[in-house]
Design goal:
By secondary structure, the chain is mainly α. It has helices at 2-102, 107-112, 158-163, and strands at residues 115-116, 125-126.
Length: 184
């Protein structure tokens, strides 16, 4: 019996070892299966992110293409408008030249600098048309380089220069006390 007890003990230990090894293998299989599930979930998530990025990238490409088409269309429109404006400018220059050929300058034309001379003496003549490169209807008043006299202050007459009554501050040259010329 002793021998049977030892055999039973050995068989029990062997079965416990087999059960322990089987349990360890089951745990390893479970860990491997869990790792495979996690890897598959990560792969699916990564594919979803890549697809989302691809869709976003394609959307951005489409938007960029639309912007390029819009910019091209706007450029064509602006080019056409510029051609129209150039044609209008040429027509205006032609009409102005025809007008100047038919009509003598007025006092207003002399005052504004479009003509020189004296209308009352019959010596008024048109000045050369302004260079379209240097003048523009959008140029602020008084900054036209073709007519510098419009930007300078009033110049003294010969009489004022000899008498010394001209003042550059816009006054008449009197000191305001006795009505006479300013004293030096």
């Amino acid at each position: 019996m002793f021998l049977i007890g030892i055999i039973l003990l050995i068989l029990g230990a062997a079965s416990a070892t087999v059960a322990f090894v089987a349990a360890r293998e089951d745990r390893e299989h479970e860990r491997i299966a869990e790792a495979a599930r996690e890897a598959e979930a990560q792969r699916v998530e990564h594919e979803r992110q890549v697809e989302s990025q691809r869709v976003d990238y394609q959307k951005h490409l489409d938007e960029a293409g639309l912007r390029d088409e819009d910019l091209s269309r706007r450029e064509q429109e602006l080019t056409e408008k510029q051609r129209d404006l150039d044609a209008r400018e040429q027509e205006l220059a032609r009409l102005e030249a025809a007008y100047r050929a038919k009509v003598e300058p007025s006092v207003a034309d002399v005052v504004t600098g479009r003509a020189r001379g004296r209308v009352s003496e019959g010596t008024a003549a048109w000045t050369a048309p302004a260079n379209p490169e240097t003048t523009s209807p959008r140029r602020p008043a008084g900054t036209d380089p073709a007519h510098p006299e419009t930007t300078s202050p009033r110049r003294p007459t010969d009489t004022e220069r000899t008498e010394g009554t001209h003042s550059t501050d816009g006054t008449d040259g009197t000191d305001g006390t006795d009505g006479g010329p300013a004293r030096r």
